[in-house]
Design a protein that fits this description.
It is built from 14 helices and eleven strands. By secondary structure, it is an alpha/beta fold. Strands 5-2-1-6-7-11-10 form a seven-stranded mixed sheet. A two-stranded antiparallel sheet has the order 3-4. The protein has a two-stranded parallel sheet with strand order 8-9. α4 links the parallel β8 and β9. The longest helix has 19 residues. The two termini are about 30 Å apart.
Length: about 325
């Protein structure tokens, strides 16, 4: 689908909406298609919204979206994209999996927006393919599907599979599709319509660069934070962090206090605990496994640190969030 001009027009694309899907990623995927039709003066793309039963689906922002087709009636598409967001890591609907598998066997390209990669993985449709999804959910996805090559790219096109990290990355992926099928000039015109700036390539980073994210530009402090973020499962000691940055431990202390208002090791532990929180909410790993995956050597140490930071134990966190799934900590 992303390789060149389509055999016929319009291209029929289905969007399967999982309850609590992300509206941003969904809109960012459809709007470039609409604009491509308008800017070209032709119906290049046609889309249908799909749910399991054909009934409206509630987005994570509380807006209900009308649906065109149920999976029973949605049978022929050039491509189908699964749009997801909150609480998708436990999605387990064999009828939906079978429907996606059938579409794939009949030649449809199958893809995902944001966390929809969880659905494709559970359907067995990402085996042997690269994929990507939102950076917050990548650790949980990698823990659940260790055999699947999940990257932190903005979007991934791997043969007849396409995935993106959600949010505005869906627009970049669709601009890539428009350019591949109808040329750079049209894709650039569509991008300009949305004041999108340069069309981003697949390999561009999902997250803001550290200087933009932290609002600081001190190169050695940024080097220390980067080393912390790269070593959450196997934490690096203060002396080693200092050596990597070419500073003394005391110099690091002063830099953290001046620019980040925190002690270095406390800041480091907060990074690890935030990762642990996402794993608690997005995976079925045991509490011990979550703790070990975030650099804690025992369940008791992990639980004590977690309670001190979030005012509840890891077990209480999981129980509270499962009782109120729509309040999950997802973008």
């Amino acid at each position: 689908m992303f390789a060149g001009a389509p055999a016929k027009l319009p291209q029929d694309i289905g969007f399967y909406l999982v309850p609590q899907f992300s509206m941003m990623g969904f809109a960012a995927a459809i709007e470039p298609l609409r604009s491509a039709n308008r800017m070209s003066g032709k119906q290049l793309y046609r889309w249908r919204l799909i749910s399991r039963d054909g009934k409206p689906v509630l987005a994570s922002n509380g807006i209900a979206i009308p649906i065109d087709l149920s999976i029973a009636d949605a049978q022929e598409f050039a491509a189908v994209a699964v749009c997801a967001g909150l609480d998708v890591e436990r999605f387990d609907d064999r009828a939906v999996f079978a429907w996606l598998q059938r579409l794939s066997r009949h030649g449809a390209a199958v893809g995902a927006i944001s966390t929809g990669a969880f659905v494709l993985a559970r359907a067995g449709l990402l085996d042997g393919h690269r994929c990507t999804l939102h950076w917050e959910s990548l650790p949980a996805f990698r823990e659940a599907f260790a055999a699947i090559a999940a990257t932190d790219e903005l979007f991934e096109i791997d043969r007849d599979r396409f995935t993106c990290s959600g949010g505005t990355a869906a627009m970049d992926m669709m601009l890539h599709l428009i350019r591949a099928q109808h040329g750079h000039e049209l894709a650039a015109a569509v991008s300009e319509q949305f004041i999108h700036g340069p069309m981003r390539a697949a390999g561009e980073r999902q997250r803001l660069a550290l200087p933009e994210r932290l609002g600081i530009n001190h190169p050695k402090l940024l080097a220390v934070v980067a080393a912390m973020e790269a070593n959450l499962e196997e934490p690096v000691g203060r002396a080693e962090l200092a050596r990597k940055a070419g500073l003394s431990p005391r110099q690091i202390e002063r830099l953290f206090e001046k620019y980040l208002g925190a002690r270095p090791m406390h800041y480091y532990q907060t990074l690890r605990l935030n990762r642990a929180r996402r794993l608690l909410l997005q995976t079925d790993l045991s509490i011990l496994e979550v703790g070990l995956a975030c650099g804690f050597k025992s369940a008791s140490h992990f639980s004590k640190s977690y309670r001190e930071s979030f005012n509840r134990s890891p077990r209480e966190e999981r129980l509270i969030r499962r009782a109120s799934p729509h309040q999950r900590l997802v973008w």
